[in-house]
């Protein structure tokens, strides 16, 4: 009786409440996320009378059984095949000899099975849009493509091959024939080859408010191709490219039927530029391409060391910057509008870290704009920097667009912060004879004007062609009293100009010596970017009232440290409101912030609004100003 009760009382099914934290693992856990086969794959294998754990240990018999199985639907067996193959590839990868082909063939198998599931399964990707298994297969394919690309790159480097490979070229790897299809990688000028390929999925990015990427098919990678030292130092090259290129790597497997795809040992490798292409036609379906737009920018900033160079450049230490450089944030596109960003005193392109990232992360703006950043020696006086920055920009436009007909050369937007805002405004004014009259009292035909002819480049200001929009952030157009503070004077004494910049100020001093000895003495002492910003200085007093040329719409973004007190008496701690305010601006936004207002979310949203409006795009973000914001 006891035995009978014991036999009948053994329940075969038990149910208990699970922990909510198990939800994700139960629904979406797989070999990539948990290191174990997903429940869907284990169920598919079990339905064939096979032990999932034994299949993981000895996959070959199970792979053969799954390939021949008829009681399973194609989706179930293809996803199980892909996961088993990926599990084997991951194990082979961990133990691979770096001098062999390694697990390339294993990853190709995994990618092929996932590709077959995605495009030759029982339903289309659109019909499976809400299924966890499709997300698993997409991720399996993307990871396998990433590892194939990385292993092929490393293999090619060991063999001394030049990357990127030529479209149409081919190579054989462990029984597979790999053919290179579209290679949309434009190397920077002066960069002979790709130096590295960095998977974006491996990067942990700190310092950016947001990381912008696009979900889709393909491996998100950063291709690194830096110009040689000689190319970077070439004096005739006014611009540089970061050399950090986003790319999407795809693997395609030829075949018109499922059986052809499963039997093929051939793959087509594509490396696509996500700025140029955001979808791909695969087996008659339009597929979004994965991309990471923040990773190249973050990697470039992390490896550039701008935070150290900014102070070195200000003080004129060894290897300090001695002339402006225009840095292109992406390969030049003649069809995109150009945004030029100019940083402030003792700063560098790092000043734009979040603004540039937010503009590139906004899909609508990314389709319409490209960003150039001006990197210049802020220890030099504004008149010298103005001449050299203008020349660098003109040469860059002329080099990239000799005919001057590309959209990129027209409807240009200037964005300047602090001293960069002063320079940006001076790039859109026409001084005529005003400076000669105000500073030198020298009419056009006067003998003094002829004797001072050498100063013409510095005191005859012409607008930069092609600009019709400008945004000034915390810009001391009329100078700042802080520049005359004792601490600023002490810093000024530490500043040393590089020889090329010293030569420019010496030429100005020599030209002034016979006519205006007091002005000559100032330039003989090498006026710097700091003391030219004084609100008592003759240069800014003379230039601050020059009108911006017709046809240029301009905007002011002004900071005030406190919301208390009259706006007209406010300051950001460095720039008084009265110096940053410009009459006739299309818009003025006042934000409670310190001097680095360009880093605030309110300023970034305002700039995005202006750029959208400039490009004729819908407003997009509906921004409700905080109580601390004031818009005019």
From TrEMBL:
<dbReference type="InterPro" id="IPR000073">
    <property type="entry name" value="AB_hydrolase_1"/>
</dbReference>
<keyword id="KW-0378">Hydrolase</keyword>
<dbReference type="Pfam" id="PF12697">
    <property type="entry name" value="Abhydrolase_6"/>
</dbReference>
<feature type="domain" description="AB hydrolase-1">
    <location>
        <begin position="339"/>
        <end position="606"/>
    </location>
</feature>
<dbReference type="GO" id="GO:0016787">
    <property type="term" value="F:hydrolase activity"/>
</dbReference>
<dbReference type="InterPro" id="IPR029058">
    <property type="entry name" value="AB_hydrolase_fold"/>
</dbReference>
<protein>
    <submittedName>
        <fullName>Alpha/beta fold hydrolase</fullName>
    </submittedName>
</protein>
């Amino acid at each position: 009786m006891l035995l009978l009760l014991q036999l009948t009382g053994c329940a075969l099914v038990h149910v208990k409440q699970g922990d909510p934290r198990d939800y994700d693992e139960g629904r979406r856990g797989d070999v990539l996320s948990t290191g174990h086969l997903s429940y869907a794959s284990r169920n598919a294998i079990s339905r064939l009378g096979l032990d999932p754990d034994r299949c993981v240990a000895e996959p070959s018999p199970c792979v053969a059984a799954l390939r021949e199985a008829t009681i399973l639907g194609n989706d179930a067996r293809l996803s199980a095949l892909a996961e088993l193959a990926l599990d084997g590839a991951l194990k082979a990868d961990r133990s691979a000899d770096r001098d062999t082909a390694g697990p390339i063939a294993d990853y190709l198998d995994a990618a092929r099975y996932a590709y077959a599931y995605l495009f030759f399964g029982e339903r289309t990707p659109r019909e499976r849009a809400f299924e966890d298994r499709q997300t698993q297969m997409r991720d399996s394919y993307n990871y396998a493509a990433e590892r194939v690309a990385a292993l092929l790159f490393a293999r090619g480097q060991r063999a001394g091959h030049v990357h990127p490979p030529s479209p149409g070229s081919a190579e054989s790897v462990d029984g597979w024939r790999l053919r290179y299809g579209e290679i949309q990688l434009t190397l920077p000028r002066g960069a002979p080859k790709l130096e590295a390929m960095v998977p974006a999925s491996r990067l942990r990015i700190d310092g950016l408010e947001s990381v912008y990427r696009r979900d889709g098919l393909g491996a998100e990678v950063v291709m690194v191709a830096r110009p040689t030292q000689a190319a970077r130092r070439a004096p005739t090259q006014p611009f540089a490219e970061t050399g950090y290129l986003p790319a999407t790597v795809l693997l395609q497997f030829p075949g018109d039927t499922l059986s052809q795809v499963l039997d093929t040992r051939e793959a087509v490798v594509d490396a696509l530029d996500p700025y140029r292409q955001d979808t791909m036609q695969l087996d008659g379906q339009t597929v979004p391409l994965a991309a990471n737009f923040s990773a190249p920018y973050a990697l470039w900033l992390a490896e550039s060391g701008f935070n150290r160079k900014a102070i070195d450049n200000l003080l004129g230490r060894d290897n300090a910057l001695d002339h402006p450089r225009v840095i292109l944030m992406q390969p030049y596109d003649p069809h995109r509008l150009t945004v030029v960003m100019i940083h402030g005193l003792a700063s560098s392109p790092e000043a734009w870290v979040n603004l540039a990232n937010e503009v590139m992360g906004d899909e609508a703006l990314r389709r319409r704009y490209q960003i150039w950043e001006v990197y210049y020696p802020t220890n030099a006086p504004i008149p010298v920097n103005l001449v050299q920055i203008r020349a660098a920009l003109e040469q860059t436009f002329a080099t990239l667009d000799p005919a001057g007909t590309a959209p990129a050369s027209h409807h240009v937007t200037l964005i300047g912060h602090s001293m960069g805002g002063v320079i940006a405004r001076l790039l859109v004014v026409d001084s005529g004879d005003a400076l000669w009259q105000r500073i030198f009292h020298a009419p056009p035909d006067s003998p003094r004007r002829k004797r001072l002819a050498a100063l013409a480049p510095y005191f005859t200001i012409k607008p930069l062609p092609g600009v019709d929009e400008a945004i000034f952030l915390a810009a001391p157009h009329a100078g700042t009293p802080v520049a005359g503070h004792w601490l600023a004077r002490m810093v000024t004494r530490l500043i040393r100009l590089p020889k090329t910049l010293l030569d420019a100020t010496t030429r100005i001093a020599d030209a002034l010596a016979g006519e205006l000895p007091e002005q000559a003495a100032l330039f003989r002492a090498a006026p710097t970017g700091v003391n030219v910003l004084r609100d008592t200085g003759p240069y800014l007093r003379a230039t601050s009232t020059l009108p911006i040329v017709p046809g240029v719409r301009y905007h002011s973004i002004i900071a005030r440290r406190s919301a208390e007190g009259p706006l007209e008496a406010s300051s950001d701690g460095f720039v008084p409101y009265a110096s940053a305010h410009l009459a006739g601006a299309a818009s003025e936004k006042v934000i409670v912030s310190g001097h680095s207002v360009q880093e605030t979310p309110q300023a970034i949203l305002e700039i995005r609004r202006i750029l959208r409006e400039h490009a004729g795009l819908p407003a997009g973000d509906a921004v409700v100003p905080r109580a601390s914001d004031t818009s005019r």
